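Revision sheet: structure tokens.
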Amino acid sequence: MTTYTINNTAGKASFLSQEEITNRIGGLKELKKDAAILQKRGLPFMMASVVIWTAITFLTIYKTDVMKMNFCIFCCSGLLMPLASLFGRILGADIYRKSTNPINKLGFLCNINQFLYLPIAMWAYSAHPESMLLIYAIIFTAHLLPFSWVYDSKIYFTASFVESLGVILVGYGFGYPIAIGFIVICQIIVCIRLYMQVKEDEKEVESND
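Predicted:
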């Protein structure tokens, strides 16, 4: 059985055997495993998100003005990298380490990618301030999806869909404070499950040594 890929240098189709395809897939899995171990499956960022969304929950409870609350929410987003760095040090994950592994770079880009969608929330800040928090929450929850591939973790896949749909349904049914509290609870569960996976990774590394 054969398939083909495009040879980038010659611009012609070249055929790969099933064995070659299997070897390349195996190499990709090794790269993903290495990235998962080095980055602790993105756990530092998820732990940071728990702190940030907890702060946002209190903002929604004690808000006195929607515009002020939205401004404070934007300020909270600036805590992501400092908090992730702190939790990374605690867990022994070097999130800024330069690596030749392209999966590491992909994981970092997926984390930063959500900031490119913030202009949508900024537009809502002035045009539809009452909806800004919901839009911001959807941006965050939806951006978790690619990590299910990056770190080979179904946790991210499930969390992305459950939180994205849940925050809308809970928000319209019970109000924003409950909806954001729902995200916090989900993220805590994500952190616990990821921590268990990280521990399994560490045991695997120790057994191989």
